[in-house]
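Quick illustration, no need to memorize.
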Amino acid sequence: MLVMICSISLTIHMFTILPRYSAYMQITALLIFISLIIIGINSDSLFLMFLSFSLVFGAKGIEYNKILKIYYKVGLVFCLTTLLLCYQGFIVNITDNGTERDLISYGSIRNSFGYVWPTNLANHVFFICLAFWLFKRGQLKIVEILLCLLTSAWIIKYTDARLGSGCIILIIIFSLFLCIRKYIPRHFSNLFGAIVILWIPAAFALSLWMVYEYDSNSNDIYWVGADAILSGRLHIGSETLKEEGIAFWGQKVKMYGGNESGDLYNYIDSSFLQAIIIYGVFFSIILLACFVYLSYKAYKRGDTVLLMAVFISGLSGLVAQHFLQIFMNPLLMALVADHTEKELSEQNELCNVE
């Protein structure tokens, strides 16, 4: 019932914002929408495709900062409520002692605190921090930096999710970089921006190349070490790619995850591998094109903060699936949302950049 209500509401919203687009963009959007519906049916993820398209398409004419603030507030309330309900015993805290697939975390206790899995909690917290950092234009106060550090430490201690914790640390590092930006040659910032334009396609290609080259029967110390660091993701991705192959319009892949999956465990964590194996070639092309265009537009208007956010989220997507989830990752809505000159001027003023 809730899904139906959301679908009807989003459909009505899409029709109301149609006049904001040119005739050419309306036709393009319609073709993409039809394609995503086909992909959603083939991959058994129809609502995710519909939701993603609706939220991105519906962001036209809305200030991106407003979207980020709403996302941050809703996400924070949801996260804190879930933690509170779990603490009170209304939601089960699923714990994990690590598995032999993860040689680094094996034996450590990992808590989900009401979420489906510990990494879901950690990455949701990371994206909440990222949204906060984005609408603050990368300018964090000392208290906020300390809170981010404590949050990162809390994630490591209670969920042992290295990715989520590390991405929050990267947010802090980039914040410090922005503070000393005026002392760094401008061509360095320009080079970083140019690199980020192709970062998501490069990360996508790296993911696919690694699982393609990985051989589970090989004793090569580099591949064995890389698979251990990535918690067995290379082995799982490689096996799934061999078994399922790649479909142009996507395909349904039954994935088993969690402690109860046992020997059937085959969950693909990497967003980029999910994109190509489950959602198909066409979806992957659209995804990469959108992020290249988003990064290019950010580079042209000098939006360094958004470029940094794309870089961090792309790093997360190499390992985790939340990069693809619009309710976790709000970056794609920046594709058509409004970016005011006031935001960029405030960023440059705070960084003392002329």
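The chain has a mean pLDDT of 86.
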